[in-house]
Amino acid sequence: MSKQGEVVKIKDLSFEVYLSEQTIKERVSEIGAELSKSYAGKNPIILAVLNGSFIFAADLARNISIPCELTFIKVSSYDGIQSTEELTTHIGLSVSITGRDVIIVEDIIDSGKTMKHLMHELSSLEPTSISLVTLLLKPDCLQVDIKPDFIGFEIPPEFVVGYGLDYDGYGRNLSHIFALTKE
Ligand code: IMP
Ligand code: MG
After folding, report:
1. Which end of the chain is least crowded, N or C, by CB within 10 Å?
2. Average pLDDT over every residue of 162-169
3. What is the number of the ligand 1 atom nearest to the C-alpha of 49?
4. From the CA of 6, how far away is ligand 2's center (Å)?
5. Residue 18 CA: distances (Å) to CA of 3, 69, 122, 135
6. Does the annotation mark 110 as catalytic?
7. For 115-148, how does the pLDDT look when each residue is reduced to its tens digit (9 = 90+)?
């Protein structure tokens, strides 16, 4: 586990702790409680968006106290550290969401394009409802009209890694969330 204050180097970039493991844990527990309350009496399906949300989804699911299913898809619109226009589906849905209450679990919303595309595609499958949970949101980077229903943390327009988030494939296994160092 990385200690608070520690700087980690991934490839050519240096990162410092931005949100500690404990801070994340507390917020994830709050979101889990909110979801359990909002979906009480329902049987939602949690749709975690791979790869980035795998740790968040695993922790969030264990903080949800109502019956729910958990499934995964893998989509991307990111190339290294740059957002692109195209949404690519690497792993599609393996269960039907028609007539279901769907809770999308995403790691981070930057331009919002990935989630905008995904929500549009999922809507055509006629779920009863779709809500969007994102651990992180960069409000200043949004380029499309998208409003997550549950947000862990709003962050400045900085590149972050850890807790599932990567820089060019690395850093997902870090326990804290790290941001690029200033210098
Ligand atoms: P968007 O379509 O621009 O909102 O991009 C969302 C996706 O890009 C997320 O699911 C992440 O996989 C990736 N992403 C955006 N910002 C970051 C970041 O700061 N660190 C790591 N991945 C990011
Ligand atoms: Mg993602």
Report:
1. C
2. 96
3. 10
4. 25
5. 12, 31, 33, 14
6. yes
7. 999 999 999 999 999 999 999 999 999 999 999 9
